[in-house]
Amino acid sequence: MACVKPDGSLTEVAVRALGELAGGGAMEALAVAKALGKPLFIARGILRELGEAGLVRAEGEAAAGSPATALFRLTDAGQAARETGRVVS
Amino acid sequence: MDTPATSPCIRLPRLGEPAPDFAAETTHGNLHLSDFAGTWLVLFSHPADFTPVCTTEFMAFAGIHERLRALNCELLGLSIDSVFSHIAWVRNIEEKTGARISFPVIADLDRAVATAYGMLMPGESATETARCVFVIDDKGVLRAMIYYPLTTGRNTEEIVRLVEALQTADANKVATPANWKPGDKVIAPPPRTQEDATARVADASLECVDWYFCRKEL
Q1: What is the share, in percent, of chain B residues with pLDDT greater than 70?
Q2: CB contact, 8 Å: B36 with chain A?
Q3: A63-73 burial by CB neighbour count: b if 16+ within 10 A, else e?
Q4: What pLDDT, on a 0 to 100 scale, did the predictor assign at position B11?
Q5: Residue B148's CB: how many other CB atoms inside 10 A?
Q6: Between chains, do A45 and B37 touch, taking CB under 8 Å as contact?
Q7: ipTM of the shown complex
Q8: Which residues constitute the domain of residue B183?
Q9: What are phi and psi of A74, to 5 degrees?
Q10: Span B166-181, mean pLDDT?
Q11: What local confidence, expressed as pLDDT, does residue A65 receive?
Q12: Where are the domains of chain A?
């Protein structure tokens, strides 16, 4: 479920995930999964990819490697990407 | 042939221990084992894309996917093929048979996952994974392994039964007898003391063959 295409534009599911986070504040992966209509493991993969791209940051126990309890929040770069549909470098 | 002196020393996974971690490219994007935390997982390998026995297996795995999901269990396939091959094969299966392949498939070109899980059987094939099944529980612990040779397609009903049996054992602190199915009687844990053994055979709620062998309804 790639989130960022080679040209820097976002995939549809990435835009939707960022939109959910923009509207919902800090969200658990399970809430993102339900909003996207995707299995939890797919939502975790999406959130990880968005995190690696600097568009989402994990809070709480996520930094300690506990994806089950992590909260995810949009970063400023994520907000910009949501508005433009691409990663702004 | 490798000799003991030249063979790489690879520790195979063991039941009851954490399943080997992985990060892998799949038909559903990059996935890590930790993405499945809180969910049971059936990780299975097949020898190669676009081969007949594997195609029948993929159709059969697709057929049990929803039943596994109802058990909070996901499916994840693997072979030593590229993600492009996987995508083409999955599309071909869907087009030719109507079976929708709804689970991800790992493209393990560098054999990292296959090696970590002991899926390679050089006596059978140097380039293909055997038909392996690993049941990993919701805490990431390896709970069951099944290995089949290249010639023989797996029985996916047995895989559903295996997950149901493991979950039943966990939930009720019991064991399950041969050919157990949901609804059948289960095996009460054997007593650990003489006093418990005496009490066991007097327990009217149990159906005992002898003190060490008692069945009960759930």
Answers
A1: 96
A2: yes
A3: eeeebbebbbe
A4: 77
A5: 18
A6: no
A7: 0.84
A8: 173-218
A9: -70, 140
A10: 98
A11: 53
A12: 12-84
Cα–Cα nearest to B217, from B174, B186, B196: B186
Other residues' Cβ atoms within 10 Å of the Cβ of residue B116: 17
Q: Which of B30, B34, B38 sits opposite A49 (nearest CB)?
A: B30
Are residue B62 and residue B125 in the same domain, yes or no? yes
Same domain, B215 and B143: no
Residues of chain A that touch chain B, judged by Cβ-Cβ distance less than 8 Å = 1-3, 39-42, 44-46, 48-49, 65, 67-68
**Cross-chain Cβ contact A67/B28 below 8 Å:** no
Residue A1 — pLDDT band, cuts 50, 70, 90? low
Contact A44, A67 (CB under 8 A): yes
**DSSP designation for B20:** P
Which of B54, B73, B132, B214 is catalytic? The answer is: B54
Provide, as residue numbers in chain B, all residues whose Cβ is less than 8 Å from the Cβ of A67: 34-35, 37
Per the structure block, which two tokens stand in for B208?
């005992």
Which positions in chain B touch A48 (Cβ < 8 Å)? 30, 32, 35
Q: How many domains does chain B have?
A: 2
The answer to whether A42 contacts B37, with C-beta atoms less than 8 Å apart, is: no
Give the tokens for residue A13: 């599911």
The CATH label, of 3.30.300.30, 1.10.10.10, 3.40.50.12780, 1.10.3720.10, for the domain at A12-84 is 1.10.10.10
Average pLDDT over residues B154-183: 98
Distance from the Cα of A43 to chain B's closest Cα (Å) equals 8
**Inside any domain, residue B159:** no
Distance from CA of A46 to the nearest CA of B (A): 8
Active site residue B9: no
Tell me which of B35 and A64 has the higher pLDDT.
B35
pLDDT digits (tens, 9 = 90+) for A64-76: 555 567 899 999 9
Looking at residue A86, its pLDDT comes to: 86
Q: What is the arithmetic mean of pLDDT over A5-32?
A: 90
| Helix ranges (DSSP H) in chain B | 52-70, 83-97, 112-116, 156-172, 194-202
Percent of the residues in chain B that have a pLDDT greater than 90, as a whole number: 93
Chain A positions in Cβ-Cβ contact with residue B32 (cut-off 8 Å): 44-45, 48
Residues B196 and B148 in one domain: no
